[in-house]
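Newbie here. two chains, one complex. Structure please?
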Amino acid sequence: MILAALLLVTQVATQDPRLERLDPDTRATVVAVLDSARDVGLPVEPIIQRALEGTTKGASGARIVAAVRRLAVDLGTARGALGTSASAPELEAAVAALRAGATPEVLAHLRDVRRPPLTIALSVLADLVASGVPADSAAAAVLALAPKARDADLVEFRRAVERDIALGAPPGAATSVRLNAGALDVYGTNSSSNNPNNPTRRSRP
Amino acid sequence: MFEREDETVERVIQQLRRPVAIDPGLDARVMREIAQVPFPKRRARLLLPLLAVAAVLATVLIVARPWIWNSASKTDALQFVLVAPQAASVALVGDFNDWDPARAPMQTAHGVWATVVRLAPGRYRYAFLVNGVEWRADPSAPAAKDDEFGTPSSVVTVGGRGS
């Protein structure tokens, strides 16, 4: 009994203080999910952030628990596709890509054709789908550009597709048109590395 | 007075222009002296280990560069902007500040709310909290489609190779 109490005190003492913002029941379940994730070597920070997002947004405990459990599962799937050397940002981006509709096979293929880090490539894939591009078209485009395109080129590609869609182009067509133009940029002379509006260096997200 | 000075200068110039006879054995004597100066062995003894250490360090840096690069606290400063003329307060909350509205209040100028945040490479979810109650996504950033809490969020991806 005393030992159990001591263990409980120790657990509370070592618990992340940020989790105090969760109600006790939710916190206990989230801590269990975090422990499980930690045991299998998954990054826990994304899970903590998802729980904090939920509580700040006023979500119910059940919803928060469901979200963190789902995220833990998806992080595991992402790591299975990218390998144990994948970084936490890569795994987070991979989760976004998976949820956007990319398959684990696409992630594994990307890992094979592109030197790490894969964070930007995976994010671009997810963001393209979020813009309305069919998942298979987005995956094909990113995989086609991945071997040689720099991160800045991939971000510029995504922005170009988004601009075309905003102007009324069908998402799939915008992707294929920009893919051809992007290929010229990547392999030709019109690289975005000297572009002052380079999205990864600009002042706005 | 000026003529006298001119004569003096002229005499000096003549002296300087006079050919100087150099002992033909001078070069040989100088070189002999140089050859007899002992080589600074202490320096050499220090130099070799230093060169070895430098070589090892260079090798380590070359080999470990990708890991060092990945783990370095490289951050980008990003400005987040929301146009909300009617808002009394706007906070930027996201994965980068533990979704804590108190940690990122935004400043306004004529209804344009802005703040700058330094972010390490990664993908971050975030949203604007207007007047403490209304959640808004960033209209200039990709939307987070996997929002599970029923309010809009946006995504920003920072940094990376070749950027």
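Moderator note: Residues 1-72 of chain B form one domain. Chain B touches chain A through 43 residues (CB under 8 Å). Thread marked as resolved.
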